[in-house]
Design goal:
6-stranded parallel beta sheet, 3-stranded parallel beta sheet
Length: 215
Amino acid sequence: MQNNSFSWKKYNQNPIVGILRGLTTEEVLKIIPPYVSSGYYTIEITMNSPEVSQTIATLAKEYPELNVGAGTVCNMKDLTVALKAGAQFIVTPIIDEEVIKHCVAHDIPIFPGAYTPTEIYRAWSLGASAVKVFPATQLGIQYIKDVLAPLNEIKLLPTGGVSVENIKSFFEAGAVGAGLASSLFDKKMIRDGNYADLEKHFLKMKNEISDFIKE
């Protein structure tokens, strides 16, 4: 297992976690150059992707400037595979206490998925780096505000339903980051190999939260 080399400094320079799901290593490697050149530093490869271990290992080796993590980690078996491949941070869709505790004990950033205030508080209490509010599609921006009113010390990372149209509002509501999949990685542009427009899209998304980026 390689040393954890997650950079919070780079994360804070652009607190968007790009989520790639279901793509081969070859497909991912075509997307990463415009992603990096647009000023993105954190990428999540979900465990239910083909060649996930190869993809994580390749990115960690070829793009040392990136924070490369594993998503959809649901149990210790998934975690072992992810860390062996070289994942530098872990994202889960649910609360698995064993996974969270292992990551905390080994100083590996962990973003567990939670939905209700009780789940969010539980994940944070276990040592989450930030809590992935999932699915944010169903909850919306007001929910983030409502949760942070009493639980203002908790760092929230809404995922699902965050788009170029509303991402700024999520940050204004108090989110410390956001996880984006299809709204960031436009499927048509990728399918057409239109990486120039994809890069423009990346830049537009980043510009929406320019006021919240810590250089």
